[in-house]
Task: structure prediction
Amino acid sequence: MKVLAIDTATEQCSVALRLEGRTIEERAMTARGHAEMLLPMVERVMVEAGCTLADLDGLAFGRGPGAFTGVRIAVGAIQGISLGSGLPVVGISTLAAVAQQFAGTGEAVLVCMDARMNEVYWGVYARGGDGRLTLQGTEGVGPAESVFLDDPRVVMGVGTGFHAYSVLKGRFPGLRIDDTALPRASDIACLGELALRRGEGLQASGAQPVYLRDQVAWVSAAQVK
Amino acid sequence: MRVLGIETSCDETAAAVFDGERGLLGARLYSQIALHAEYGGVVPELASRDHVRKLVPLIEGVLEDAGITLADLDGVAYTAGPGLAGALLVGASVAQGLAWARGLPAVGVHHLEGHLLAPMLEPEPPEFPFLALLVSGGHTLLASVASQGDYQILGSSLDDAAGEAFDKTAKLLGLPYPGGPELARIAESGRPGRFSFPRPMLHRPGLDFSFSGLKTAVVVAVRGVPLDDQVRADVARAFQEAVVDTLEAKCARALQATGLPTLVVAGGVGANRMLRARLKALGHRTGVRVYYPRPEFCTDNAAMIAYAGHQRLAAGQRDSLAIRAMARWPLNQLRPPGEHAA
Result:
């Protein structure tokens, strides 16, 4: 299967092409350059693989949680690419993508991503019946103090939330920590391929963000024009 | 050449198709007014969230209206600014993603250029050069337009835009959001002479505008006055007269100073009936031809973006793959189609 994946949800912008299990990826750290960099990165990865959209089976994107505007850049671009190519598209959780980086260890992980405003996006991922890391319960957003862990299998804490809020390391002293991990398009391509195989591909308009933080009007009330 | 136009700069999601030979083939628009009404103004994050839900179905719908498929398109144009950054990014991302996937050229269009050229969509379009009065909720300016992309700004608002003054005054009077058009509606039953407001900047040289003092004058005038429907109408009438007098006087001054033979009125306030009547009369008196877009192309729309983008694409202009969204983008940085864009 051949899948193109993109992610712009965090300060890392990434694009990956998964070709029958082999992956080509380009990543860049950027504060505000996602919009400018994204499609040139896509173009380079496609050229490097000698691939056109007609060769692909589907598309995947980081559907959030993450920076609202950042997430929408990937969503908008993938909507356009899906509309233009007719390729099915799947949205992959950025928390699941971070967890996927540690899938090789076989261990369950607590993912906490910095959500700004003294909050984290978080989720617990452990092996499911198919042997793959699977979300346990639901994804959440809230203050670091609200993160809870009742799954004894979890031995690792990963994600930028552990860097931003030291209270998290204090709350879960038994965990090994990687506080730098950011979502990557290569993992989104891998998870996207599985979702596409399960028949979860949608048409362009079905590609939508998941913000988790949905109480936004009060946040923005001061910006009302 | 057949161009898809996309507009998401504020609180309207819109898509349109313009064909160089057949003209406008279709235009669809979804307004977010109801979404923002309870906040009394546009909430940027909510606007962006709604654009990302509505845009693709609108594009599919407008292609159906036009009786064409994506394979029949020759280019994509999108509003690249100015506007709300997050809202602009939605349209820009979809447009560039779509153009890249189809192998089509794309071009980012200046929202105000779209407004200035909107009368070109009418059966009898104006000819260059012309004087343009652009009056909307976000902008108030007078520009000398030599050709597309060759704009000299003669005057602009130093504070509130004219449409913003309409909306804020309507809010003061307790009219439902967005109050501007409603204020204009009730002004028709207002009695003359009950209130009198200043004509800002009229006795100063130059072509700049200022409307924030007018709003303050309304606050002062209605202080302690019980607001029944008739009083509201009286205030609305006096307010509208003050704004229209000012706009008319500055237009007259600009026409005299430039000697331009044609006046184009664009932007949402350009749909105001009193303003249209007064500028038409001004045209009669001075021998100047006055042009307006139809009311639905005065307010934000994608037809004007498709048109402006078509002209640029047809002249060979091409953007890079960068998704462009500029919250601020001075109009006078533009260049004519085909020349290197700012």
